[in-house]
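Just curious: can you write whichever protein you like plus the matching structure tokens?

***
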Amino acid sequence: MGGYGFYVWLSYGLTFLALFILIINSVAKKNKILKEVEQRYLREQRMKSAKNTEDTL
């Protein structure tokens, strides 16, 4: 590598580290969004159920 091996491997290492962090961050955000969607869906279901209960009274 003509004396530049340290810099070449350092750039590979930093690139893989950045990709790893990006993947972990993406998975974490995906899980957070899915959890929020599920909570919103359950809340809407509870609201519909409460409204239906009020209408039958």
Remarks:
- The chain has a mean pLDDT of 94.
- The chain has one domain: 1-57.
